[in-house]
Design goal:
Layout lengths: L6 H24 L6 H15 L21 E5 L2 E3 L13 E10 L2 E10 L5 H19 L7 H14 L3 E2 L5 E3 L6 E5 L16 E4 L2 E3 L6 E3 L6 E3 L5 E3 L2 E6 L2 E4 L5
Antiparallel strand pairs: 1-3, 2-11, 3-4, 5-9, 6-7, 6-8, 8-13, 9-12, 10-11, 13-14
Helix pairs in contact: 1-2, 3-4
């Protein structure tokens, strides 16, 4: 069942979203050569503590996972697409990093992700990240009353496919509210004019996941969480929590 949120509820979700934005900004700014993924996780955890917020990631165990997630931040590097578990790996010049983070504040959740290159980017990586951001912007622009879910997926998929990238099989965005994952699912490909009608009060986590090699397939790493490209190509993952309103999409996890 899809829950429609009131303006008051959306305002409360914005506050949770801003905790997410602060944590991602802090982690991205700290992610230099020689910094470990565990250090980034601890930094994000400190932002939660300062805000009096909780992590919807820590201890989360969906049906596909063999163990609960052990951190507050997903850290996916190079060929890791999503769900990367923080380790003592220290970042190197040219690493492509995707960070995914959530926060629960006063009963409401926020969820967002960003991708960037540490140090000097390869041109191909810079293009991949820029395309992911364009795909996210296109999906957000389609999140308006009167459209359908397929319009969001079509907008995202068109940007990704026209650039020659793959789209992660089996995973996409989701509804969000009191819980991090709610109905409805939000696809990264779709047919325009098809699917669930979009209504004011719906809040969606829109999250393109691009695979640089052009294929869609992946495998699960031995940690049981990290999803890696089968061909070893690099990947990018970006996400915002977005409310559908009468006046257009409102990004609740915008970074300042």
């Amino acid at each position: 069942m899809v829950e429609l949120k009131s303006k008051t509820s959306i305002d409360a979700m914005y506050e949770a979203g801003q905790v997410v934005a602060r944590a991602l900004t802090a982690a991205r700014d700290a992610a230099g050569v020689g910094v470990s993924l565990l250090e980034l996780d601890e930094l994000a955890h400190e932002v939660l503590r300062e805000a009096g917020a909780a992590s919807p990631f820590l201890g989360y165990r969906p049906s596909f996972a063999p163990t609960p997630f052990p951190a507050v931040l997903c850290t996916s590097v190079n060929d890791a697409v999503v769900h990367g578990v923080p380790t003592d790996y220290r970042l190197r010049d040219g690493d492509l990093v995707s960070l995914d983070f959530g926060a629960q504040l006063n009963g409401w959740a926020g969820d967002s992700a960003l991708s960037f290159v540490v140090g000097t980017p390869r041109p191909a990586d810079a293009r991949l990240v820029e395309t992911a951001e364009r795909a996210l912007a296109a999906g957000i622009a389609a999140a308006v009353p009167g459209n359908r879910m397929g319009d969001i997926g079509h907008a995202i998929g068109t940007v990704c496919r026209s650039a020659g990238y793959g789209i992660l099989d089996d995973f996409g965005g989701h509804g969000i509210g009191r819980r991090m994952h709610e109905d409805p699912p939000v696809p990264n490909e779709g047919r325009p004019g098809r699917g669930l009608p979009l209504r004011p009060g719906m809040v969606l986590a829109i999250e393109p996941m691009l695979l640089g090699g052009g294929r869609d397939d992946y495998h699960v790493a031995p940690d049981g969480w990290t999803l890696r490209t089968n061909d070893g190509s690099r990947a990018a993952h970006v996400e915002h929590t977005v409310a559908i309103t009468e006046s257009g999409p409102r990004v609740l996890t915008e970074r300042r």
